Each structure stands twice: as C-alpha cells, then as structure tokens.
Amino acid sequence: MATDKSDVEIGQAQIEWVSRHSPVLNGFVRETLSDGALKGARIAVVVHLEAKTAFLATVLADAGAEVVVAGSNPRTTRGPVVEALKARGLTVVSAPDGDHASWERELLAAADWAPHYIIDDGAELTLRMGKFRPKLYANLKGVSEETTTGTARLHALRAAGKLPFAALTANDARCKHLFDNRYATGQTTLQAILRLTNRQIAGARVAVIGYGYVGRGIALYAKAMGAHTRVVETDPVRALEAHMDGHKVGTAADMLPGATMVIAATGGMRAVGMSEFAHLDHDVLLANAGHHDLEIDVDVLAGLTNDRKETRPGITTFRVQERDLHVLSGGALVNIAGGSGHPVEIMDLTFAVQGLGAHHLVSAKLAPGVHIIPKALDDAIAAAKLKSMGISLSEARSEQEDDIAQWIEGMPK
Ligand SMILES: NC(=O)c1ccc[n+]([C@@H]2O[C@H](COP(=O)([O-])OP(=O)(O)OC[C@H]3O[C@@H](n4cnc5c(N)ncnc54)[C@H](O)[C@@H]3O)[C@@H](O)[C@H]2O)c1
Ligand SMILES: N[C@@H](CCSC[C@H]1O[C@@H](n2cnc3c(=O)[nH]cnc32)[C@H](O)[C@@H]1O)C(=O)O
Hints:
Elements: H1 7-20, H2 23-33, E1 42-46, H3 51-62, E2 66-70, H4 79-87, E3 91-92, H5 100-112, E4 117-120, H6 124-132, H7 134-138, E5 142-145, H8 148-159, E6 166-169, H9 174-197, E7 205-209, H10 213-224, E8 228-232, H11 236-244, E9 248-249, H12 252-255, E10 261-264, H13 274-277, E11 284-288, H14 298-304, E12 308-312, E13 315-320, E14 323-328, H15 334-337, H16 344-363, E15 369-371, H17 375-388, H18 404-409
Parallel strand pairs: 1-2, 1-4, 2-3, 4-5, 5-6, 6-15, 7-8, 7-10, 8-9, 10-11, 11-14
Antiparallel strand pairs: 12-13, 13-14
Helix pairs in contact: 1-3, 1-4, 2-16, 2-17, 3-16, 5-6, 9-10, 9-16, 16-17
The structure holds nicotinamide-adenine-dinucleotide and the ligand N[C@@H](CCSC[C@H]1O[C@@H](n2cnc3c(=O)[nH]cnc32)[C@H](O)[C@@H]1O)C(=O)O.
C-alpha cells in the first residue's frame, strides 16, 4: 500500500508501538535508571537493529547515556528505524540492505566510537574490538551479552585470559532464556516460515535440529499446531527430554527422510551440511533459527548445483539430484531476517535484563570475568512484568516452610 509517510515517521511509529507494549522498560527499568548512574556512560548497542532494539537505545539515551547503535546482522537492520533514531539524535553506524563486508565496517565504526560498555549480541563487537582494536578493547569497562552463542564466546575469551573486564551474560537470566529463547523463538520461527511459504503446519513433518531452549520452543509450538515433530540431538539428556516431551528422536539419517520442514537451532555450524543434505526429501523447507548463517550450509549447497532460483521472496530453491531444496532467508535467522523478530512483550523482558545489566555493570564494581545478573534483579523484572499484567504473587507463610532448622538444632515438633 502506498504511503506518504517519511521513513522517519514510519520508524517513529514502530518505536512508539514497542513503547506502548513495554511496561517493564517504561516502568521498573526507567525508574532504576533515573538514579543517574548511566549519565555520560558510552554504550554501544549491537543487537538486531529494528524497533525493539531502537526503543532500548532510546531508554538508555533518556537515562543520560551516550549511545551508538549498530546491527548484529546485516540482514536484520531496518531502514525506517535507523532514520528515526538518527532524527532523535542518536549515533547509528549501520544501514539497511548491507552485506557482510559493509557489516564488518559498521562494527569497526562502532568500535572506533570508543564505547566503554557494550550491549552485544553474539559477542560480535566484543570479539572484533579484541582482535582489531586492542587499545580500545583495553578501555572497555563491561559487556552485557544477549544470546547463548555470545555467552559461550565470552567464556572462551575468559578461559584464554583475554577478558580484562566484567561481562554479564543476560542470556543466563531466567527472564531471558526461559521466555525469549523458548516461547519467542518458538512462535516467531514458525510465524516467519508460514508467512514466507504460505504452507500448512498441521500435518507437516517438522524436524528440529538441536533441543536447547530454542529447539524446545520450536518443537513445542509446531506440535501444538498439529505438526508431527522429530528431534535430532547430540546431548543424551536433551535427547531423552525430547523423547519424553513426545517428539520422535533419532539421528539425522533417521529423522530427515520424510521431513517437510527442517529447522536448525544448534548455535553451531553446519548442523545441516553435506552429509545431512543426502537425507532430505524433494520439496523440503530448510530454515535456521540458531546463530550462524551457516547452520544450514548454504555455501556447500550452492557448490552442489548451478540450478538455483528465487522461487518466492525469501525462498531460494536449489535443485540437487532431482530434488528441490528450499532455503529460507538465505540461511540467516528466519524469525528476524524473514519475519518481525521476537514479540514486543518478550523483548520487554530481554531488554529489561539488558538495560538493568548495563546499570549493574556501571554501578556495581564487578571483577573482570563472566557474571550473571543477581537473582534479586531477575526476580524484580518478573515481578514487574506480573504486576503489569495484573497478576498477583503468592507469599509463603512461615508455617509453610520446611522445618530443616529444627532438624539441625534438635528434634522437629
Ligand atoms: N533466532 C532467535 O531469535 C534466537 C533466540 C535465542 C537464541 N538464539 C540462538 O539459537 C541457538 C540455540 O540457543 P539455545 O539457547 O537453544 O542453546 P542451547 O545450547 O541450549 O541448545 C543448543 C542445542 O543444540 C544441540 N546441538 C549442538 N550441535 C548439534 C548438532 N550438530 N546436531 C544436533 N544437536 C546439536 C546441543 O546439544 C544443545 O542441546 C544459539 O545460537 C542462540 O544464540 C536464536
Ligand atoms: N547474532 C547472530 C545470532 C544471534 S540472534 C539471537 C538473539 O536475537 C534476539 N532477538 C530475537 N528477535 C529480536 C528482535 O526482534 N529484536 C532484537 N533482538 C532480537 C534474541 O534475544 C536472541 O537472543 C545473528 O544475527 O545471526
């Protein structure tokens, strides 16, 4: 539909929609940040650059922080949001429709802005500052990390003796991974696949590779919508859990034949690679909800055939040995590159963790190393969310408590 609105106005309206549905960021987070701790703090926000991320950046800026914003993936930066942030006076180093080369330049521009703190996703800016801008890296005071893969990378940096500042793993907060990784990725991955393909979920045979929080959420939603779900796992406990959750579990060789949708959620590389391609049926949909653009090894697929076409927007079809294999969103995160990303309500929680994480990094004198946010803060975020939904919390009375102290001091009554 034609619109006479400018990009700035479109971006502003999108950010306003997020604000309207973000009670925790607008309430508890703003109140906490109003103590002035963030005044003058130089914070780089490097997360998928769309309206929810933009809103977080404005909350930090409103609290007095100096903010630079960059996208965490070249395919998820939204033009109108960039324009709206710039119109508000924030520094934005990313542009939409870039490729990996332009994205690398954008991250280096964010590094050269010399942040003291980073709200990072996948540790993308942290790693690059360590490698390419060692002097600026030495000036970093703290990092708060969004996701599972970035958390693993921070632990690896610490183990290598290359983490001279405090890093908070927002992903480890219960208010993050229990809701964002599980429910949000579950909902939005299927939402994006169905929108891109216009296909049917009930009765589909959906194979999920990796049964962590993300894989669990996807399998949960797919099953609830009538799909026949299968799981491929390398971790025996998680494979057992998938089995008890009611999914069929087995090796890729057993689970991929007959699957109509294959969704990768491992956080690793090439979960669907050369050996898995051999097991795929004609007309299968391949989607990535994990971390790397190469969870589905699109490069190898491209090397197997010259017969490749854009079948629909966001669908690349590779014809390999008389089978059509449809890759969604070029193998990038399907829920963000091919959809609208996580629901606002969930990012209200995730970004509350990130915003308060930044505040905690600035105000608490944390030793260098990897930390999680205090449990009391995690609880307070959940309590604020419950309150915004009008849900009351129960409190245990003293007579409901276990009598363990009495066992230790003498015989219980
Ligand atoms: N798309 C999104 O919006 C979104 C949201 C949250 C997290 N993530 C990303 O999704 C990925 C998964 O996150 P998580 O929290 O579920 O992580 P996790 O570590 O809890 O789970 C990953 C699972 O994959 C399994 N696995 C690893 N390699 C495998 C392989 N080759 N075959 C089969 N199983 C394999 C692991 O054993 C593990 O159980 C991470 O990269 C995370 O950063 C994406
Ligand atoms: N940096 C990698 C993959 C990590 S994205 C995974 C993270 O994205 C976050 N995420 C999901 N949807 C959105 C969104 O709409 N806006 C901002 N971040 C999002 C979510 O919190 C999750 O931990 C890449 O871009 O390929």
